[in-house]
């Protein structure tokens, strides 16, 4: 999703701004642009497509500047095009970049048209440039103009702006969209994502909603919503090069799949001791709060929601708690009834997903006992706004398709199931069994990664098809859904998931030799029933690819049976996820798609 970077420096900033845009490419975007202050004029370059093209334009035009703003755009209002790309400008004077959505843009456009402004894009963002210019032209300072502009805007925004008549200052503002300041050496930076400037500093200031700040190469000043000067905490984050480069791998997604043993170890490390989970791993006082919990409500989106669906089974089996789960984008609109002593759990890799954040904010107005988030980014809005949290410690996930974030979310959710059970004095023997299994989970994941060679043999068969079905039962149904999501988003093959018992209620009509069926068949009390469901597929000429426990015997006419490593049943969903990730990756590689940045998708979805 859109990315902002800005720099006020004593050196030429063009290159560092473009490097920052490259670092944000993983978020997903369709166009890019830059505005560079050059004393009496502003160099304004925009391109449709990859940042590389903008870079080529920069190399050709060689603009020099010590003050600039840049942006990657992910279209919301108006098609992807050069005209709609940021920065947007007003009267060749004010240039702005914006993340978020301005909800009252139609009214504001009318107001500005009446004031004589004309629009050259279809975006909601362009009006911000005009509003700022409108207030500047009336003699207001940059900061005052930003406050006057803010008063008119409804919606979510992170903004960075420069004025041709001021070659020293950048003004930035935040409301509901992430924005931070980076303290560099002889320079100050701003960005929507710490990764964009992680090469230049490890000191960050996360702005709060309503904040406006002014940056020069010498200093920064932050004002709060009421225009009072404020000081905000400096956070130290070391974003090493290693974490943000592909190393020996072709894609970030591939690297992130193979990082999972370490990532899962990092999630569990320091949180279990002896035969149980440690106290208060979700924050001080969490163990006491958990004693009172009578019900859990989960909200999340996409892959994170699938993790929640698995966890709902764990909360029932291990913590003995009923759990309701909702798409974050739907939750607020179904007028949810909140039972007494309910715990709201949000799950998000980025912690900036607008729907999940909006659901949390809505829930905070309701009678929840408490709010808790499972998140990979400790500095995210979700983490800061939840009462309790646990970080998955997976390291930066750059590939748009979530892999290590998902399996570490599952590991963290298992810790939550165990902590709730412990506080509620439930199932001590089961807890002990799971803790033992958790300790060996990184090794089991490592062993599972060795299935790559077998998967490479089936990948061409799936890559040649247009559709695929994924089947799983019980706790494996969400894993089948995750497998289907992974395949569709990176290979563009249409894929659906069903609980295997549902096949005969409709989807069986789709089965023929063109429909590969990928099934998850662990050893379980319903394994026999699943095998019968798969026989139904076989009888209709469908090609089966079955990931199964060695104890399950099936005579396949075509397709393949792949034996999975042994693992405690409750943790097997994590293990069975791995081959599905590898399969999607290898299929997408064969189909030549843009694996790390699939079309139309964004890593961090900061619009509702
Ligand atoms: C799919 C994927 C998305 C995200 C979803 C929520 O591979 O990554 O479905 O899971 O956009 O994002 P987060 O977890 O950042 O809230």
From TrEMBL:
Residues 286-426, 458-598 form the SIS domain. It is found in: Cytoplasm. GO terms for biological process: amino sugar biosynthetic process; carbohydrate metabolic process; fructose 6-phosphate metabolic process; protein N-linked glycosylation; UDP-N-acetylglucosamine metabolic process. Its EC number is 2.6.1.16. Residues 2-218 form the Glutamine amidotransferase type-2 domain. CDD domains: GFAT, SIS_GlmS_GlmD_1, SIS_GlmS_GlmD_2. InterPro entries: GATase_2_dom, GFAT, GFAT_N, GlmS/AgaS_SIS, GlmS/FrlB_SIS, Ntn_hydrolases_N, SIS_dom, SIS_dom_sf. Transmembrane segments: none annotated. Pfam families: GATase_6, SIS. Signal peptide: none annotated. Coiled coil: none annotated. It catalyses: D-fructose 6-phosphate + L-glutamine = D-glucosamine 6-phosphate + L-glutamate. Keywords: Aminotransferase, Cytoplasm, Glutamine amidotransferase, Repeat, Transferase. GO terms for molecular function: carbohydrate derivative binding; glutamine-fructose-6-phosphate transaminase (isomerizing) activity. The active site is at 2 (nucleophile), 603 (for fru-6p isomerization activity). One of its GO terms (cellular component) is cytosol. Catalyzes the first step in hexosamine metabolism, converting fructose-6P into glucosamine-6P using glutamine as a nitrogen source. Homodimer. This is Glutamine--fructose-6-phosphate aminotransferase [isomerizing]. It comes from SAR86 cluster bacterium SAR86A. The gene is glmS.
């Amino acid at each position: 999703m859109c990315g902002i970077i800005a720099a006020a420096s004593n050196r030429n900033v063009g290159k560092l701004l473009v490097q920052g845009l490259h670092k944000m490419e993983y978020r997903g975007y369709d166009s890019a642009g830059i505005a560079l202050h050059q004393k009496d004029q502003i160099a304004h370059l925009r391109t449709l497509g990859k940042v590389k093209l903008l870079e080529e334009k920069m190399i050709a035009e060689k603009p020099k500047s010590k003050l600039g703003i840049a942006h990657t755009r992910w279209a919301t209002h108006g098609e992807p095009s050069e005209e709609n790309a940021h920065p947007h400008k007003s009267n060749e004077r004010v240039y702005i970049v914006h993340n978020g959505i301005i909800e009252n843009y139609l009214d504001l456009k009318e107001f500005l048209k009446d004031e004589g402004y004309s629009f050259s894009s279809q975006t909601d963002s362009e009006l911000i440039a005009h509003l700022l210019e409108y207030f500047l032209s009336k003699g207001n300072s940059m900061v005052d103009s930003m406050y006057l502009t803010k008063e008119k805007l409804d919606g979510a925004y992170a903004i960075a702006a420069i004025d041709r008549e001021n070659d020293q200052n950048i003004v930035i503002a935040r409301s509901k969209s992430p924005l931070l300041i980076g303290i560099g050496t002889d320079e100050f930076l701003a960005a929507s994502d710490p990764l964009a400037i992680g090469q230049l500093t490890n000191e960050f200031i996360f702005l709060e909603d309503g904040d406006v700040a002014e940056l020069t190469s010498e200093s920064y000043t932050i004002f709060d919503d009421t225009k009072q000067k404020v000081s905000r905490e400096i956070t130290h984050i070391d974003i090493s090069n290693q974490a943000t480069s592909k190393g020996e791998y072709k894609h970030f997604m591939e690297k992130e799949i193979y990082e999972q043993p370490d990532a899962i170890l990092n999630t569990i490390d320091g949180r279990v001791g002896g035969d149980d989970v440690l106290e208060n791993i979700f924050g001080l006082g969490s163990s006491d709060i958990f004693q009172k919990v009578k019900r859990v409500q989960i909200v999340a989106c996409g892959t994170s929601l699938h993790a929640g669906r698995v966890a709902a089974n764990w909360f029932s089996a291990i913590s003995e708690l009923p759990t309701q789960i909702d798409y974050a984008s739907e939750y607020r609109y179904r007028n949810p009834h909140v039972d007494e002593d309910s715990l709201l759990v949000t799950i998000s890799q980025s912690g900036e997903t607008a729907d999940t954040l909006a659901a949390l904010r809505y829930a905070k107005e309701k009678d929840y006992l408490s709010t808790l988030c499972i998140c990979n980014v400790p500095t995210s809005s979700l983490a800061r706004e939840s009462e309790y949290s646990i970080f998955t410690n997976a390291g930066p996930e750059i590939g748009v398709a979530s892999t290590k974030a998902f399996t570490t979310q599952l590991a963290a959710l298992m810790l939550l199931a165990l902590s709730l059970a412990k506080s509620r004095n439930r199932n001590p023997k089961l807890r002990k069994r799971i803790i033992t299994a958790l300790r060996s989970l990184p090794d089991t994941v490592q062993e599972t990664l060795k299935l790559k060679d077998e998967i490479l043999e089936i990948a061409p068969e799936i890559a040649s098809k247009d559709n695929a079905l994924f089947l799983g039962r019980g706790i494996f149904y969400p894993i089948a859904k995750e497998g289907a999501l992974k395949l569709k988003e990176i290979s563009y093959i249409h894929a659906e998931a069903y609980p295997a018992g549902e096949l005969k209620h409709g989807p069986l009509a789709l089965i023929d030799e063109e429909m590969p069926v990928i099934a998850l068949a662990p050893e379980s009390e319903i394994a026999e029933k699943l095998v019968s469901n798969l026989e139904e597929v076989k009888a209709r000429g469908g090609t089966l690819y079955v990931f199964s426990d060695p104890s399950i015997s099936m005579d396949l006419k075509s397709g393949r049976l792949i034996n999975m490593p042994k693992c405690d049943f409750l943790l097997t969903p994590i293990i069975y996820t791995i081959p599905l990730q590898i399969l999607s990756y290898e299929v997408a590689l064969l189909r030549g798609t843009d694996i790390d940045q699939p079309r139309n998708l964004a890593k961090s979805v900061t619009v509702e």
